[in-house]
From TrEMBL:
Cross-referenced InterPro entries: Phage_TAC_11
Superkingdom classification of source: Bacteria
Record lineage: Bacteria, Pseudomonadati, Pseudomonadota, Alphaproteobacteria, Sphingomonadales
Name of the protein in its database record: Gene transfer agent family protein
Length: 99
């Protein structure tokens, strides 16, 4: 993991996965979720849906997931919001900073 590149990590079903908010990843996330600024606003207001967070994580995976998306989503949910929040904060910060 390279914090200088805006990377974060999350443990999903026992796998430590690296998230990197590259331009291509954010464009793909925006294609599914709509404008990223609106996503950040929803997150700031406490209205970010679990499915939106999972989708953002999915698109920002640095390497291909070692599991299908449904299993990834289940793993993120099983890990709990407290475990996912640090990675989410890093990604949202990178979206706003534009690094």
């Amino acid at each position: 993991m390279n914090p200088a590149r805006g990377e974060a990590s999350i443990r999903v079903s026992g796998e430590l996965l690296v998230l990197r908010p590259s331009f291509a990843a954010l464009v793909a996330a925006e294609g599914e979720l709509g404008p990223l600024f609106a996503l950040v606003e929803r997150a700031a207001a406490g209205r970010l849906a679990l499915g939106e967070m999972v989708a953002l994580f999915w698109h920002c995976l640095k390497d291909p997931a070692p599991m299908p998306r449904e299993a990834f989503a289940e793993g993120v949910a099983a890990g709990g919001l407290a475990a996912a929040t640090p990675a989410l904060k890093v990604l949202l910060g990178q979206i706003l900073a534009g690094r």
